């Protein structure tokens, strides 16, 4: 009787330990997902309208304004550094070794090309009438744009399309809802008769939509033609051939009406409907892409709960959010926007709570000769290191280290589960038959 009671007590404690481990594994997975999406958020923003700094630099050079060229050269250099830094950051969350090599090589080539482009602009600014200087500038412009395309495609190849679509503003639970945010800004600009704001935001929407279409269309090349690819490509064609031209037409009409003296009236409802269709079109693309995903492959952000509205939304992208060349991923994390920090902090707080429960459960057991308890304590140590990372301290230095730590926890959890099942089977075999 005493033996049976003892085994029952051990089984209860073992169940509690397994439950604590399961919860901790889930929290670790959630934290890893938040870190991954934080990186993808930077990828989504940085590889949008990548040619603007270059075009501004060239325009200043053609005008022979050497002072402006030097100023815009600094902007161009910072933009190039940001592309390179974000590309390397994307490498830290990828397991695609060959793809990572290609990204790093492309980033290195872009870095080497940057000063050559600036020198070509300075030469053109010094002699704006020189045909040779103009041809030289055109040559480097083509090289730069080609290299940026190569880097963009390489980064796309090592990142998940699901993550990209989520942070492009299609997952309502994300800290940034880019498309919805931009669409609402566009409508607000129209209502406030802000011509510059309207034109600028509409340009961002067109650029983001074009990027989504390019990424999704390229992704479909990886699949055999069939019902799935047809549905996805049908959604992209609808956005590209029907929705975006209508949106562009409405924007041009609005800009023309507001720029008139006096300003001409226009149909605001038509503009809002065209804007709404952009949001709906991109959302439909994401739904089509997720059509073949299993429930296990989806996360909470894949279930939409947010509706379109026209309220003002303040962008959380600030100048403090810029990536500086040479920073570690941990330093980059410290510079994330406050909403992203809050999201990760929430995960960490929950992570800490589950760790405390696991610590309390493990402390009840003697680890002498007990492999399960040894594994559990190892997991607790790794969890503490991951928590320290979010505070800017500890042995983990970058996102890759955090992901590696999460993998170690998952591996330890698998070994623990196997040991637990073996012990449970043994206990059951020892119980007297009723």
From TrEMBL:
Name the Gene Ontology molecular function terms of this record: actin filament binding; beta-catenin binding; cadherin binding
Q: Does the keyword Cytoplasm apply?
A: yes
* UniProt-listed SUPFAM superfamilies: alpha-catenin/vinculin-like
Keywords assigned: Cell adhesion, Cell junction, Cytoplasm
* Domain of life the protein comes from: Eukaryota
Any one Pfam family here would be Vinculin
A single GO BP term for this record reads: cell-cell adhesion
| One cellular component (GO) term of this entry | adherens junction
| Compartments it resides in | Cell junction; Cytoplasm
UniProt family annotation: Belongs to the vinculin/alpha-catenin family.
Record's protein name: Catenin alpha-1
Species in which this protein is naturally found: Chloebia gouldiae (Gouldian finch)
